[in-house]
């Protein structure tokens, strides 16, 4: 073959010059958040103090409007919470990666919109339950963060956030949110 390549005057290809075959995109989870597109009323229970053994919860209502973007590969929530401290807004962008089959979820807090973004929680839905994880910090110490989406119907859903200060061995649920579709 080398002789044939030299004889024809064509350069031989090095292994790095051979294009790698395209990986088939994993679109199995691209529609996982389609259920959430629309307008929702929320009721939240949030632990006032996290990872300190507190049992002091506060409750408040809110609204979420969720929109699909990028042909379904992303979506974003426009959220308004009426907390005991006052009304504040936030934005939750989500993006699907067809290479990994994972969703990433960020939070932009309207009380500090130019602050650093939290690391995204990443995960997927399995048997109707979405579980998402991230490594973050709380009061300067490393923590794990977990979101769980469950109890999903056409008109309702349940979301929980939990933190772990021990690398994921134990979890403290610190925010519980039930949502009901408005339209």
Feature tags:
4% helix; 10-stranded antiparallel β-barrel; globular; 183 residues; mainly beta; 1 helix; single chain
What can be said about this structure in brief?
The protein is mainly beta and 183 residues long.
Explained architecture:
The chain is mainly β and 183 residues long. It has one helix and eleven strands. A ten-stranded antiparallel beta barrel has the order 1-2-3-4-5-7-8-9-10-11. It comes from Dyella acidisoli. This is DUF1579 domain-containing protein.
Segments where pLDDT lies below 50 for 5+ residues? 1-8
Please trace the helix and strand order, writing H or E for each element: HEEEEEEEEEEE
Helix content class: under 10%
Mean pLDDT: 91
What is the global morphology?
A: globular
Strand content: over 45%
Distance between the termini: 66 Å
Protein name: DUF1579 domain-containing protein
Organism: Dyella acidisoli
Detail the topology: elements first, then pairings:
Blueprint: H1 2-8, E1 38-47, E2 57-69, E3 74-83, E4 86-97, E5 102-105, E6 108-109, E7 121-126, E8 129-138, E9 141-150, E10 156-164, E11 172-181
Antiparallel strand pairs: 1-2, 1-11, 2-3, 3-4, 4-5, 4-6, 5-7, 7-8, 8-9, 9-10, 10-11
């Amino acid at each position: 073959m080398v002789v044939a390549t030299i004889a024809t005057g064509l350069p031989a290809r090095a292994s790095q010059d051979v294009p790698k075959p395209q990986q088939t995109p994993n679109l199995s989870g691209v529609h996982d958040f389609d259920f959430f597109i629309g307008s929702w009323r929320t009721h939240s229970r949030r632990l006032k103090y996290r990872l300190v053994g507190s049992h002091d919860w506060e409750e408040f209502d809110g609204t979420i409007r969720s929109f699909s973007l990028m042909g379904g590969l992303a979506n974003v929530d426009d959220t308004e919470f009426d907390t005991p401290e006052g009304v504040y807004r936030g934005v939750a962008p989500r993006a699907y990666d067809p290479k990994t089959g994972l969703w990433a979820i960020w939070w932009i807090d309207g009380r500090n919109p130019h602050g650093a973004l939290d690391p995204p929680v990443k995960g997927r839905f399995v048997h109707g339950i979405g579980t998402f994880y991230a490594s973050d910090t709380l009061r300067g110490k490393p923590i794990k963060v977990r979101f769980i989406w469950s109890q999903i119907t056409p008109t309702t859903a349940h979301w929980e956030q939990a933190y772990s200060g021990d690398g994921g061995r134990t979890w403290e649920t610190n925010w519980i949110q039930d949502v009901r579709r408005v339209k």
